[in-house]
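Deadline looming. Please check this record:
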Amino acid sequence: MNMWIPTEHEKYGVVLASFRGTVQHGLPLEIGDTVQILEKCEGWYRGFVLKNPNSKGIFPCSYIHLKNAHIKNKGTYEDSRRLRARSALDLGRSRQVRNKVRSGSVAVCSLLQFEMVVPTEDTVITEMTFTLRDWGAMWKQLFVRNEGDLFHRLWHVMNEILDLRRQVLVGHLTHDRMRDVKQHITARLDWGNEQLGLDLVPRKEFSMVDPDEISVTELYQLMEHRHRKKETPTPVSTHHLFVHLKSLMSSNLGEELEVFFFIYDSRENKPLSERFFVKLNKNGLPKSPDKSERQCTLFVDLGSGDLRKDVYIVVHIIRIGRMGAGEKKNTCSVQYRRPYGCAVVSIADLLTADSKDDHLLKVYACNTESEWSQIHDNIIKKVNSRYNLSGSNTGLAVALQLLHGDIEQLRREYMVLFTRGVSITKKLGFSDVIMPGEMRNDLYITLEKGEFEKGGKSVARNVEVTIYALDSDGQILKGFVAVGSGEPGGDEYHTFVLYHNNSPRWAELIKLPIPVDIFRGSHVRFEFRHCSTKDKGEKKLFGFSFVPLMQEDGRTLPDGTHELIVHKCEENANLQDCARYLKLPFSKSNLPGNNQTAKGTKESFWITSFLCSTKLTQNGDMLDLLKWRAHPERISDSLSKLKEIDGSEIVKFLQDTLDTLFGILDENSQKYALKVFECLVHIINLLQDSKFEHFKPVMDTYIESHFAGALSYRDLIKVLKWYVDRITEADRHEHIQQVLKATEYIFKYIIQSRRLFALATGGQNEEEFRCCMHELFMSIRFFLSQENKGLRPITQTQAVFLQSFPAVYGELLKLFTVREVATFIRETLGSLPTTTQSDCPLEAVKLLCIAKTVESELYTNIESRCILLPVVLRLLHAYMQEQKDLVMCAHILTCMLSLLKKDDTELSPSEEVDLIVESVLGVLLQTILEITNRPHPAGPTLRPQVQDVTGEFVACLLALLRQMKDRHYQQLLQRFTTKDDLRDFLLHIFTVFRILIRPEMFPKDWTVMRLVTNNIIITTVLYLSDALRKNFLNDSFEYKVWDSYFCLSVIFINQPCLQLETFSASKKKKILEKYGDMRVMMGCEIFSMWQNLGEHKLNFIPAMIGPFLEVTLVPQPDLRNVMIPIFHDMMDWEQRRSGNFKQVEAKLIDKLDSLMSEGKGDETYRELFNSIIPLFGPYPSLLKKIERETWRESGISLIATVTRLMERLLDYRDCMKLGEVDGKKIGCTVSLLNFYKTELNKEEMYIRYIHKLYELHLKAQNYTEASYTLLLYDELLEWSERPLREFLSYPMQTEWQRKEHLHLTIIQNFDRGKCWENGIILCRELADQYESYYDYRNLSKMRMNEASFYDKIMDQQRLEPEFFRVGFYGKKFPFFLRNKEFVCRGHDYERLEAFQQRMLNEFPHAIAMQHANQPDQTIYQADAQYLQIYAVTPIPDSQDVLQRDGVPDNIKSFYKVNHIWKFRYDRPFHKGTKDKENEFKSLWVERTTLTLVQSLPGISRWFEVERKELVEVSPLENAIEVIENKNLQLRTLITQCQTRQMQNINPLTMCLNGVIDAAVNGGLARYQEAFFAKDYITNHPEDGDKISRLRDLMFEQAHILEFGLAVHEKFVPQDMKPLHKKLVDQFHLMKSSLGIQEFPAYMQASTIHFTNGSPRVGRHSAPNILIPDGGARVVARRSPLSYPAANRYSSSSLSSQASNEVSNITGQSESSDEVFNMQPSPSTSSLSSNHSASPNVISSAPSSARGSPQLSDKHKHSRENCLSPRERPCSAVYPNPLDPTQRPVPHPMGDSSLPRSDPNISAPDKVVKSAPSSWSLDTSLSDSNGKCPPVPPRPPYTGSPARTTRSQSPVMSSRSPRKSSAPSFTPSPTECQSTGMVSNSPVLSGSYSSGISSLSRCSVSEASGTENTPGDHALPNSASSGSDEFFRRENKTPPPYSIHDRNNPRRPVPYPPSLSVLPNVDAPPVPPKPHQIRKPELEPRRPDPFPRPRPIPRKVSQL
């Protein structure tokens, strides 16, 4: 059997084809994957894909293309993995390993490395490959994020890089082309990395650098250079203009054209460039279309000053043809050059144009031909009278483009342009920078003008000038007359002809590029001809001029304008013999004085010449100097005049000039030595000029190759020493400074001269030379040591010398040894004066000299460096100590440390490191601290410089620390003589390290630099921790140092650049391979140091809890395992010290919130705290460690609390992420807010989250919820004057002011949420405060605001929301939702389907359950999300308002859906055998009642279900409910119809039709059949009462129908009369089917009518009015619609409408079960969105207590007694019975809350109809003694509510208790009898848990807390004398919202029977609201019988 063999060379490959990996242990591969190969066996490899190294397997060898690679950390992969798998803790704790790290034998990062394969290919290829892979993944994400622009741009760049990669891989590129391609690739890679936010890659020569292979300072410089290059592109000083002529478009061409382009300076009125010349054919197209160089040109060497507005491109167009453009064709074949047109465009316009725009230039023609030479000036100056358009459709099509950069750079970038051909058009004259080797000899001649005589003609001549260039023999120079670039030069040139003009002006420029060797003796001849316009077209010669190009003395024709003599000649004169006329004078300026004849002639010809030559000169002084041997007597003058010669002339003849000078020196050294020296200095300094600096290499070459002055060194040394010696005595130093500036080249000449002498003589006179040099340096040192005395500027001269001195080092090394030169320099620099003034110029130059010394070749030698280093460090330390010239200091230090390589193979620089550490480490730390802490100026100008200096100093520090080994640290620590010094050093270095870790220290994308920094920091900390442990523990403990150490460690671990989890897989892999996880090592060090603290740990409790907690939140398992036990240790030590760990707990919780809200922590972290099972490594969880302690119970409690807090914080953080829906955010915030209040009692955090929740509600436009939320903070405040500190967005103010502000904000939000009833209460409370302070202005505003709310209640429509029960099942939901049920208040117009869809959108992974059954445990524990949603019906706690007749629907609508605690859901089912004939026999209803933890609406749109109750309603009870509901609906509709509240009668018609039709077709008959049958009565004897009740209801329904038909007949329109008749007929059938011949006596006794048309009676119906015995009678004014029904509902199983609940019309409930409403029919969906009513509602008297001023007892008694009951207005809080067309609105009633609503009426349309009302809300309830009966507890729910619960019937008092025999009526809210409700002020809602407040603190009455039975209708009469009511306060009104009320159980309120009236007595009318007066402030507050301790301490007043 063959074995798997580890591979040696086959280590790396690329997958050629995809492999599925279907074999055993097969590894799936995709084409293009890179694999690392571990082993080989018979054609198979074993290895892994590099992108997933954890998955290993086998794959065929044939699928892999092997590539060369080298291996780092060679060995088997598994061995290296085992090495890597060693616990980081062991590494941190192992003293042996740590010592290895410190000694340098093992790098920190190498401990965690393993075998790594690096392909041996071009690093650019490698980088491209990895970068493109990273980009590929991010590129797809761009598409997902819809960033289309970047997506497409990146796609193009990736394709471009792939193409370039192919070119590089092929390897066929030339070296230059390869360089260009790599540069292009890296530019593209950098662009993509920048766009994608990736890291900046440090590169050197296009290749990535390994930061371990170079020094940190060099790495920083590379990063800085690339960063600056990216940010600030270097400005380009050279520009070029590309011109491409395409065509001339004109309709009247027909002749050939010549087009001339040139650049023109309108400011100087002269051309700047040569001309570019293009020939066009008769069609206006180029004549040579195949030769692009004849159509395109590049105007080169334009300076930045040439790109201005007054520089233009001028185009002159000349036609070739007849004299007149319109002449007819004739036989004449002679053609003339004639002006055609001109075009102009400004160069500045091209700066704003696109890269290569086509321009159509307008062509203008002259009005007067004689002005042709000035046409472009006239166009520029817009002198319109002198030119006009040559044609409306004439234009020149030209492409113009400005190019920037060096010409060689353009050749590379625009290779195609130069390859295909482009002519070069030069500037006139030399460019700004003259390059050596540049050969030019161009003579430019401009033909300016001429003056000619008529010559006997009657008209002026047509003059044409022909130009020839001739040599000394008179032969025409062929091809040397150039008109312009673009066309080759010609033998001659003809000017254009101006018609009949004897004074023509041409201004035509020609170039004569005549070679130097034939320039002497050459001349230019100008021939003048008259062009006849006759038929022959002859050109007749009439004269000529000439000009020689060089004078006899060798000087060329001087530049300037020359007036040439026009020599007459015959027409046929022969000018070929030039010798004949060359003897004649050529210029009028050269004529002798006696030749007046020639001077007086009128004919002249003017030209302007300009020579641009690098070989010829026009300067006579220069020629005299060069020919010094011919005239020895002129040598002195020539030397003196050399300084006056133009520099360009000198550099032209530089070598000749230098040869001349040294020739003179060698022959006459005694006489001319000083003057030659001065001339040499002048030439040397001339080359310092930027224009000539490029000639320095020419001088260097001369010195090396051509200089021959072997004896010159003696004279040069002597003269130089003479100058240096007289420095101290000279008064003027300018000349001496010029000499010292030339020191570099003087020494070059001295050294080269000595070398030549030694070479020639075999080294003679060596000692003499050395002696001279020593004497020279002694003079220099003496001069340098002088301090400034008097007015002599010696320091300036010293500075000048020091600037040039470092350049001498290299020359000295050619003749002296390294040590000798180093000694020279050390002694010279050491002689400098130590103390100088701060403004002395020597100060800056000293450092500059040191910098150049450090940069010199001399310093790179270790031998010389040891000599120079002390003096360099001494100066550097002094400057850094004084913080002077830090930029240069940083530069010097950078250069010094760049020489210290990390891996030195040379002589160890250990001593050098010692010197640097000893000298500058301390001052370097101090400098970094000072420059980072100094305030930076506001302006943006200085910041970059400071940042640069900081970065360079930091890089120097890091480089120095990287070089330090164990020995260096030992020596460093031993230098500290006292512990104070050591302490200060440690504090400094720890502080600096914290600065280095700051995010702003390096740019964001410098990850490489940050990782190097961190690696150095952790290594240094490992060294210094031992010093900390040895010197500052036990008796010498220093808290400050230890605290600084721990803070540094924590900040280090939490750096963003070390959070590997946030990086891509490839980046994370690279970091781990190179450095490992540095966080773990630092965590181990923290743990180790903590263990050493011992009892000193107490100093860090609780201060370090927050920082250590921050460390544990890092999602790194090893790090967490190390750090979590520290908390156990803290708890243990705190327990020992104080017996508890409250400090630990408080700090832990506070810090946990702030950290997790910043995005730290995860699920695993929570488990690590909580789980008992050890999750990671050797450490048990914190909980398990705590269980072993004696204080385990409190510890476990703390961990449980922290765990629960983390659950909520994690949920909160996840929900707060961008893109999450508002519902999740709100729900999560509510959960966290409640937790802080109820479990942690953290008031400040509680208030902070209140405001966070408030902001979320405002953002979601949940204004009502926002108001309730802000009330939580409002109710924590009192109306007091205590000062509150500044908090959140609140300023410093009193508690009263803040509470006022909160009230106003809440009122505003209640208004926006249309919750005006709640706003009214707050308005009243605030008005009370204003009134108590006599602030009538604000009081008036508040009362008007309150009044406006009443108007809005009556006038504006409000939509009633639907309510939905939502179950969240499964483990995937957040903790605050997981396996919980909620009831949610829907949005406006939101039905079930829309709500369900919204929830599925919020939880896109959730599955909607399609049934309403309770899920089983599999659903609860499923690893998924399940949503169960169905609609529920609200059940208001209070029935009173909803029962009142005449209360407008606008008022009722509020109480139906506000303050709802309970919701109901009905599910019909059949029990037993279903009777197909009559399904009602077995139709039961399963009724589910949901009770919430808080009422809706509240601080959230949904609340959790606290309790569920399930009851079953029997078929008989169900039938009773159905008929009751339908009866109530009929009553309501009839009432609305009678009071004309209906717009039309259709709703009543439809209802009557539905009921009568159903009854006729078997509806009621089915009930009769099911429940009135003898069998049923016999089998169910217990249901006798209910059967009687059902029969009574059926009779009642018939009676109502009869009355309803009567009303219907009154209002029915004519077209519906037939329908009405049909209804009447069917009603008689119905009566007969029911067996009703006439109604019972008790029904007949109650006539149905409404007083004044208003159903204002029957606020509570008589409880026994329908009892069959007829013992009671109905009040005469009462409508049959007020007939009793224990509970009435709006739905019927006979119709499929939603079932809604209505209030009690009577005061007695048959059973509480009858309060429930049932679902429509068995076929109705359980997920229907229809409302259901809620069960177990206990009727109670309403609470209308208001916070308004009250009357005194005396006033109230008299006021009430004088009012008749009829005058008392009803309160809008208690409306009439509900409109069955409206949905119920919840309104709980339990504990003195805001008015509750009733859900008994259904409303198909949710719009509330307004109705007029005059009802008052501003009254409080109280008994006559100011006390109220207590609120009894809620009765227990036992069994079915149908059988166990009976609700109290609210009754109403009369003015005399003795008359109380009438039926119970609801008392008016304005009457002052106690109703068992809290009388002080109403509250918003019942018992809110965890921070939901009520609107006011309520006083609870003191009477009995037991509930009365149905028969108990009497309370003591003292409770009924109740017209009195008072309102007591303590100074200020107590806060209106009490959290404690929310936590009390809701209690049903009994109604005082003393208020009941006899059934046979009319209800007394309600009196108007009494005037109420504020009670005196001194009256004490009523004691609260139920003390409610505040869960939150009153420290909130400070917030």
About this structure: The CA atoms of residues 1458 and 1546 lie 30 Å apart. The mean pLDDT is 75.
